[in-house]
Design a protein that fits this description.
globular; 6 helices; single chain; mainly beta; 22-stranded antiparallel barrel; 49 strands
Amino acid sequence: MRSNILQQPWRFFIFNLGIGIFVPLLLTQGALAESKQSQFITEIPTVIDSQSLSTHAKDLLSQNIENDLVVKITQIKVNTTNKGIDVILETTASEKLQITVNSQGNNFIVNIKNAQLFLPSGNKFSQQQPAQGITAVTATNFDANTIRLTVTGEAGLPVVELYDSPKEGLVFGVASAAASGQFGQQQPEPQQPPNQTQPQQPSASGDEPIELVVTGEQDGYRVPNASAATRTDTPLRDIPQSIQVIPQEILRDQQVTSTAEALKNITGLTLTGAGGANTGTVDVQFKTRGFDGNAIRNGLPTGYAANSIEVSNIERIELLKGPASVLFGQGSPGGTLNVITKQPLRDPFYAIEATVGSDDLYRAALDLSGPLNNSKTVLYRLNTSYLDRDATTDFFNNRVFFIAPVLRWDISEKTNLTLEADYTDQKTENPVRGLPAEGTVLANPNGKIPLNRYIGEPDSNQEGKTGRVGYRLEHKLSDNWSFRNAFNATFFRYNQDKLAFPVNLEDDKRTLDRIGITDYKEYYNAYNLTTDVIGKFSTGSVRHQLLFGVDLSRTDTLESSGRYTTAPSIDLFNPVYGQPLGTAVSSQYKNSGSSDTLGVYVQDQVNLTNNLKLLLGGRFDTSRSTGRDDLANTESSNSSDAFTPRLGIVYQPIEPISLYASYSSSFTPNPGQDFYGNLFEPERGTQYEVGIKADISSKLSATLAFYDLTKSNILTADPDPEHVNFQIQIGEQRSRGIELGVSGEILPGWKFYGGYAYTDAQITDDTDSSIIGKKLSNTPENSFNLWTTYEIQKGSLQGLGFGLGFFFVGDRQADLENSFKLPSYFTTDAAIFYKRGHLRTQLNFKNLFDVDYFDTALNQLRVFPGEPFTVQGTISWEL
C-alpha cells in the first residue's frame, strides 16, 4: 500500500525531528564548529611507534623546546611520487623541532612545535586532491610556536613516513590507503596483524625513514570504516544509515565457535528457525528490525550458506540495518550481513589455537600467511579448523571441517588479482528439532519436559558440504578512476535421512505424533559476476565519488527432494527409542529450477562541503525464475522487474558529530499469480531513518538511530470464497523503533561494546482482520547487550585481562497469531585471559548462572532452548 507521508504520523515525526536537528545546527555552524573541533582534536592521544625511529628522527622527536628563536618554515612543497606524495617543509634548522602526532579518522595530524610558517603567500597553506586517495594537505600556524600539518585520506588514514633531509628540511612521505583486499572494499595494503611491528623500508633518496604507525591496526572494538553500506571503504560517520561491525577481536575475546554466537552482539538481532549454535544447522537465520535478514560474503551474494557457521576465517562481520537492494539486489528489508574474510599479509604470520570445553567440545585452528617471493608481490593465507562437539540435547554430535586458501598477486603497482576458495564439511548426528511449547514455555499437566530431551530417533543424520571458488581483479585506470571485477561460484550439497518431525501433541499432553522424512536433498549451484567502475571528480567545489556497477547472477537448483513416511509416536516424559520409521511413503516431491538476475546500479557520494554530504543511488533489476516438478513433469516460470532508489544526507556540525537522514528500499520477487492470471508484484521494503553518530573520543564511537520500516505487497489469502488456494497482494507489516550502539576503548586497556534496541513490529494490513495489530514473531520490544574487557597495561601482571558480558532479550511472540510468547531472559558471560609474548591462554564462561531460556520458535511444537552453562579453555600461539 502507498500513502502520503503526512498521513503517517510516525514518519512525519521522524522527518520533523530531522528538520528540527538540521536547521538550527546549520544556522549555528560557524563559531561552534571551529571551537569544538579544535578542542576535540587536541584531546586525541598520540599514536607513534618509537621503536621504529631512526637516529635523525629520534633527535627530532626528543628535542626540547628551549630555544630562544622560533624556526621559520619558508616554503611548503607537495611533490607527486610513485606511492603518493612528498610534503616538504623547507627549513635549515629541522634539528630544533619537536613533532607529535594526533591522528583522527582519515586525518593524519602532526603538530610541529617551536616553528612558524613564513610563506610568501602568508601563514596558511592548502592544496586539494594532490594525488589519488589523498583529499587535502593543509598547514597553518596553530599557536604562537606550533604549526599544524594535516593530510586527509579519502579511503582511510594515510601511510606516512618522516625523513630528516639536511638539504630540504622535513619530508613527509605520504601513501594513501588505496589498495583493496576485498571486492567492494578499499583498504590498506596487507599489513601485519595487530601488535606486530612493521619493518622500515629504505627510501629512494637514501634518507633514513621514520615510520609513524597509524595504519594496519583497528582501534580495539571500534572499527571506523565499513564497506557493506556503499561498496567502498567509507567512514561509518559518513554513512547515512545504521551499520554495526563486530571486529575479529571480539570473536577472539568471546571465543565464539559459530556465527550464531557472534550475532548476539548485534543490537536488536534475534535468531530464527533452527539457527542456534547447538542445533546442527549449516547456516544461521536471523531477524533484525522485525524482518528477515540477508547474508553476503565480501560484498557478494553466495547463496544459501553465505553465513555458514565456521568462524576461523572471519575478519569481521558488518550488518547494514534496513533495506539494501540498491547495492545487493533482491533481499528482505531487515538488514544485510556482510561476512568479511581474512586476507593475505605482507609479512610472515603463523598462529595455532586449541580449545576444549563443556559438552565434549574440541576445536583446533591454524592460520598461516606471508609472502611467497622476495619482492612480496605474491602473498598467501591459509586458514583451516576442525570442530567436534556434543550438546545438551541427548544423542547430538556435530563435526565441522573447514579450509580456506587465499592467494594474492600484485601484478603491477596498478593491478592485483586475488584467488580464493573455501570448503566446509559438516556432519551432524541427531540434529536438534526443538520441543513443544506445552511443557517448556507453557504449562503441561505432566510437568516440565527436560530441556535435553530428543524428539527424534537416535539414528538420524544430516550432512552439508559447501564449496566456494572465486577471484577479485582490481586495476587503477588512472589516478582517479579504477576498475574492479569479481566472480564467485558456490556449490552446496545437503542431505538428511531418517529424521522424525513433530506434527501433533495429543490430548494427554505427553504423546507426540511424528512424521518421518528420508532421502531429503538440497543441491544447488550459485554464480555471481560483479563489475564496478569507481571514479573521483569534482564539479566546481563539489567532490564526487561515483560508483557504477553491473551484477549478473544465476542459481541452479539441481534437486530439492524428499520422501515423507509414517513414524511412531513418542512419549515426551518417558521416551522409548529405537522404533524404526515406517516404510510406507505418505508423500514425496522432487523439484528443480533456475533463476537469473541482472542488476545495474549507480551511486554518487557527494561532498557538497567538508561537513555536508549526500549519498544518492539507484538500481534496476530484472529477474526470471523457472521451477520444475520433476515427478509430474510440469514447469512454471515467473519474471519481475524492480527499481530501488536510495537517498541520504549527512551533516557534521563539528568533525566528531554526524547527523543523518535517509530513505532506502528493497524488493523480493513474489513468484506465482493471482486468480485472474496476473503476475505478482515484487514484495517491497521502504525505510525512513534519522540518527546521530558521534566519535566520543578517537577510540570510542556511538550511534543513535530512529527508523520507520514498512514491508508491503505481502501475499495473503484471497478472501473470495470462490478463489480457494489463491492469494492476493494486500498484506503489510511495519516496524519502527530506536537503536543505540556504543563501541571502542574507554580507557587504555578497557574496551566496551554494547547497545539497546526498542522495536515495535506488527501486522498493519491483511485480508484476515483478526491478525491486524498482531506483533511480528521472534521480535522482542526491548533487547540489550554489553560486552566489556579490561587488560592490565603495566607491572608484573601486564597481559592479564578479564571480560564480562550481559545479554537481555525481552519476551516476544512466537508466531504471527500471537498464540504464545517466549519469555524474556538475561544471561551473563565472563572471561579471563593472559598474554605473554607469543602465547595467550583464556577461559570463557558462557551463561554463567545457568539460566534456562529459549532462543527461538518455529511453531507450538518446535521451541528451541538456549545453551546452558558452559566452560571453554583456549590456548593459542602466534608468531
